[in-house]
Amino acid sequence: METETATLPQTPSGGTPWLTDAEQCAWRTHLDVSRLLMHQLEKDLQPFGLTNNDYEILVNLSESENHRMRMSDLATATLQSKSRLSHQITRMETAGLVRRVNCESDRRGLYAVLTDEGMETMRKVAPHHVASVREHFIDLLPPEALQALRTSLTPVAEHLRGTRGKI
Predict the structure, then answer these.
(1) pLDDT tens digits for 85-121?
(2) Exposed e or buried b for every residue in 117-148, given b needs 16+ CB within 10 A?
(3) Residue 106 has what pLDDT?
(4) What is the overall mean pLDDT for the chain?
(5) If DSSP states are collapsed to H, E and C, what string results for 42-90?
(6) Of 37, 75, 76, 133, which cross-links 85 as Cys (Cβ 3.0–4.6 Å)?
């Protein structure tokens, strides 16, 4: 079996080879799918007045014990800086979806708490979001391709989770 080799020179350090044509194609396809899918899912949330970030926060809170999370844990879970999350939560508080509550055990800590309105929004939006994920991703791939995708991407996800917070 013949493998493709890169025709471009190595990086100036001489240690890292350029991507092969097949690797470049896989990488760019991944980027295209990621951007296009997230754009479509965001577009499908717009009629509900939500962004992907809003929805991700609502999901995290709805699945957490007592429908609340420490702000620092929510920032970590959603890959947002504490500052960016704070601004996001302020917008969601204004919309009545969440509220902030002081942490009893740590006066400096805050919880983001899902409100009744936020939970009702989740109940209303989740079926539409799942239908969008199905239409634009799941139903386009046969079950064996979904399993292969999961098998292929799991090591990447585990590697990236392991590098979080490292410089």
Answers:
(1) 999 999 999 999 999 999 877 777 899 999 999 999 9
(2) ebeebbeebeeebeebeeebeeeeeeeeeeee
(3) 72
(4) 91
(5) HHHHHHHCCCHHHHHHHHHHHCCHHHEEEHHHHHHHCCCCHHHHHHHHH
(6) 75
